[in-house]
Amino acid sequence: MPGTDTQPKAAGGPFTGYAEPEERPPFKSYASFAAVFNASVAGALIAARRSGRDLPAKASAGDVVLMGVASHKISRLVSKDKVTAFARAPFTEFQEKGGPAEVEERARGTGLRRALGELLVCPYCLGLWVAAGLHVGLIFAPRTTRFVASVFGSLTISDFLQVGYRAAEDRGLGGS
């Protein structure tokens, strides 16, 4: 369909040759997401400056690790956890069971719906949004942000220990 989010309006448009029209990503929706992300981060930085909040001269290694581990966990919870599937369901389609307590899904629909579905099932894509949100949180509410991030960081450690314990049990090395 000419003029949709997945096809150029005219033959020879800028997306011609990238992929077959039925396989072409929803570029306009992707561009919209990029604009929203960048405007949100810029807006937060402008708001911080106007409120007299200074950005730190450098990021501490501890905050980088904490925010990184928390971003990992939050993005996986949103994109893969079977308990959060209700939030993804309008934009995704179940494919199969995934890792422990996870599911594999794919985006469905076209245009904005498909693009949002692709964002919601990609922990790598969501990680940028989550990391940016946590870092903005460090500017406006550092104590609360560090507390929330430490909860998700602790959960990440717990998850790895659960997987390691299960692997040890499977090898006959553990048990209670």
String of helices and strands? HHHEEHHH
Mean pLDDT: 88
End-to-end C-alpha gap = 61 Å
Tally of DSSP helical segments: 6
Rg from alpha-carbon coordinates: 20 Å
Q: Based on helices, strands and strand pairing, what is the structural class?
A: mainly alpha
**What count of structural domains?**
1
Question: Which regions are unreliable across 5 or more consecutive residues at pLDDT < 50?
Answer: none
- The neighbouring-strand order within the major sheet is 1-2
Structural commentary:
By secondary structure, the chain is mainly alpha-helical. The protein has one domain. It contains 6 helices and 2 strands, in the order αααββααα. A two-stranded antiparallel ribbon has the order 1-2. Helix 2 (61-80) packs across helix 6 (142-170) and helix 5 runs antiparallel to helix 6 (142-170).
Summarize the model shown:
The chain has 176 residues and is mainly α. It has helices at 27-50, 61-80, 85-88, 111-120, 123-140, 142-170; strands at 92-97, 103-107.
Q: Which labels suit this protein?
A:
mainly alpha, 176 residues, 2 strands, two-stranded antiparallel sheet
Strand and helix map with partners:
Blueprint: H1 27-50, H2 61-80, H3 85-88, E1 92-97, E2 103-107, H4 111-120, H5 123-140, H6 142-170
Helix pairs in contact: 1-4, 1-5, 2-5, 2-6, 5-6
